[in-house]
Amino acid sequence: MRFFRRLALFGLALLVFAACGVVALLWLAFAKLGIVAGSPRLAVVILLASGLLAALAAVIALFTIVRRVGMPLRGIMEAADQVAEGNYSIRVEERGPPPIRALARSFNTMTERLGSHDRVRRDMMTDIAHELRTPLAVIQGKLEGLLDGLYERNDAQLTELLAEVHVLGRLVEDLRTLALTESGALKLEKEATDIGGLANDVARAFEAQVAIRNAKLRVDSLPELPLVTIDPVRIREVLVNLLMNAVEHTPPGGTIVIGMADAGTKGVSVEVSDSGTGMKPEEADRVFERFHKGAESRGLGLGLAIARNLVLAHGGEIQLTSVPGQGTKVSFTIPRDSKG
After folding, report:
1. Three-state DSSP class for residue 259
2. 336 burial class (0-12, 13-18, 19+ CB within 10 angstroms)?
3. Closest C-alpha among 223, 231, 230 to residue 261
4. ∠ CA 178-182-184 to the nearest 5 degrees?
5. What Rg do the C-alpha atoms of the chain give, in angstroms?
6. What's the chain's average pLDDT?
7. Which of 3.30.565.10, 3.40.190.10, 3.10.410.10, 3.40.50.1820 would CATH assign to domain 191-334?
8. Where are the domains of the chain?
9. Does residue 311 have a pLDDT over 90?
């Protein structure tokens, strides 16, 4: 690297000048002892000249280091203080030797990511507040109406209140599951499971929602799929999240299919496909990000992020393909004897 080569040259020059000074001192000493013949004045001149040149080289080297390294580092340190105070818009100029420019580039990348994460955090807090406010407002209004005698105290009113409590409970559980999976603290209760039977159970639970949307839902499964050692509660949650997204984006008359097959050494593969609206490639690339959701999506954007984390916790893989106007497919594989 050019900067360090220059610095090495300055160091070499210092060594040369220092060697000249040592030679001059030895010459002066030998001349005093009469070992060599020579002019003491000449030796003194050589010694002083070598010292001055060495001092000049040292000053130049120090000035170059301060200008090329010290000043850019000072700018990065000052910018770091602003980041520590919460200013994620700060950027530093990429100047100086290549290592310092690389450091500045990494610093700018870091602040950009911190700013993005901060925006996601603020948006998340806004979304959580909105999602909590709606069921809480319904519960509060219902309870006040029951106490004031505006609503009849019957099972129908209590059923509506219970439904809103379930909404709150699901939100809290989603946030808890996301935190556990991302921290690696989720404990899986694994057992040998018929994943085909599990998928059929989940499909039956969605029959009413699919019927309301005038859509169709079917399960395609091989008759003799191998048992897989999984946490059935968590894989059920994966299927529920995938089906919720499929139902939400499937228009009337559309079809949703849960397909399963033997994936050989990878275990068992499961695919949830729909004939819905689909999405653009840039949107499909971000669907597994936490709190990311499309413009028409409801909720916090946690479902697919949780599904991905739960599949990964089982040692599996998950992927999504989508074509605008043709639908979306989400497929995942689970090892027969998953680790985790």
Report:
1. strand
2. middle
3. 223
4. 120
5. 35
6. 79
7. 3.30.565.10
8. 2-85, 125-183, 191-334
9. yes
Per-residue model confidence as pLDDT tens digits over 248-306: 888 898 999 999 988 888 889 999 999 888 888 887 787 787 766 665 556 566 788 88
Whether the Cβ atoms of residue 268 and residue 229 lie closer than 8 Å to each other: no
**Distance separating alpha carbons of residues 177 and 302, to the nearest angstrom:** 10
Tell me the C-alpha to C-alpha distance, in Å, between residue 168 and each of 96, 121, 138, 238. Answer: 54, 20, 11, 19
Predicted pLDDT at 318: 93
**Phi and psi dihedrals of 193, rounded to 5?**
-135, 140
Query: Do the beta carbons of residue 329 and residue 273 sit within 8 Å?
Result: yes
Q: In which element (H, E) is residue 329 found?
A: strand 327-334
- What is the SS3 assignment for 318? strand
279, 294 Cβ separation under 8 angstroms: yes
118-145 tens-digit pLDDT:
887 787 777 777 777 878 888 888 888 8
Q: Is the pTM of this model over 0.90?
A: no
